[in-house]
Amino acid sequence: MVISVTPADAHHQAHAHALAVELGLHYSELPPSADAIPFLSYSSLGVDLRLSGPSAPGPVRVDFGAGDMRHRRRAGKNELLGRAVGVGKRDNLSVIDATAGLGRDSFVLADLGCQVMMLERSAVAFALLRNGLDRGLASGDGWLQAACSRLRLECVDSIAYMAAASEKVDVIYLDPMFPERQKSARVRKEMWMFQELLGKDEDSEELLAAAFGRASYRVVVKRPARAPALPGRAPGFVIGGRKVRFDVYPVT
Ligand SMILES: C[S@@+](CC[C@H](N)C(=O)[O-])C[C@H]1O[C@@H](n2cnc3c(N)ncnc32)[C@H](O)[C@@H]1O
């Protein structure tokens, strides 16, 4: 699918054009004329993903300082993920999030003190992530800036990245798109847009195999609670929640 970058107004034409050129996307001064076509919009609020047409859901942008991220933190919802990667057992964990997506899990890990390299192969997701990260770093909010300063980002296929890297990190974290999520009526708006845009992650087994060569402590895979484990190797142990679980593969 061809995605265009569109300026919200005349002030953002140069930014939108530069982003399109950098990421190999199309530049268009106007949103798509047909309904339900995804496009990136560049405005004073940042970069967001929209669907064209009058009945489209609201835009999706990466906002690490949003209320739901703060609520997730206060409500202790980050603990399962933290336990899965080993927060509390080791200090200053280095993590590669090889399926960064909208960066929510990466941000949680950074907030828990991990140094996180986010890898994302979709140019659209990368554009949203980088803009969210830039806004977080410039926010003037000490908590948000501190967590964002522990995040780095590359637009790359993680399998190729891990094959080329020579250094190991403590943990490799994977959350590949799971097709059955599409059947849930309660699937979040942004994940629905991403599934429409990105399709299934067909190479998760290969991604898991590549991760074992680069992790020195654990590989962690997020799965829907009742989904099978990724094929290839059985997890050493599982940390289960109501909707999702984390399959943990200790590396010895
Ligand atoms: C389910 S989403 C991840 C959501 C993420 N955990 C979050 O908290 O926002 C999966 C993402 O992984 C990316 N992805 C899947 N396989 C990848 C690969 N081999 N290299 C880089 N990115 C990959 C997809 O493009 C998609 O954006």
Question: Could you provide a short overview of the structure?
Answer:
By secondary structure, this protein is an alpha/beta fold. It has helices at 13-23, 67-74, 79-85, 104-111, 123-137, 142-148, 158-164, 189-198, 204-212, and strands at 4-7, 26-27, 38-43, 46-51, 94-97, 115-120, 151-155, 169-174, 215-224, 237-240, 244-250. The protein has a seven-stranded mixed beta sheet with strand order 7-6-5-8-9-11-10, with helices on both faces. A four-stranded mixed beta sheet has the order 2-1-3-4.
Polypeptide structure, described:
There is one protein chain. The chain has helices at 13-23, 67-74, 79-85, 104-111, 123-137, 142-148, 158-164, 189-198, 204-212; strands at 4-7, 26-27, 38-43, 46-51, 94-97, 115-120, 151-155, 169-174, 215-224, 237-240, 244-250. It is α/β, with parallel strands linked by helices and 252 residues long. The protein has two domains: 4-51, S-adenosyl-L-methionine-dependent methyltransferases; 67-250, Rossmann fold (3-Layer(aba) Sandwich). The protein has a seven-stranded mixed sheet, with helices on both faces. The protein has a four-stranded mixed sheet with strand order 2-1-3-4. Strand 5, helix 4 and strand 6 form a beta-alpha-beta unit. The longest helix has 15 residues, at 123-137. The radius of gyration is 18 Å and the shape is globular. The site of S-adenosylmethionine has 23 residues, from helix 4, strand 6, helix 7 and helix 8. S-adenosylmethionine (SAM) binds at residues 98-99, 101-105, 119-122, 125, 157-159, 175-177, 194, 198, 201, 203, 207.
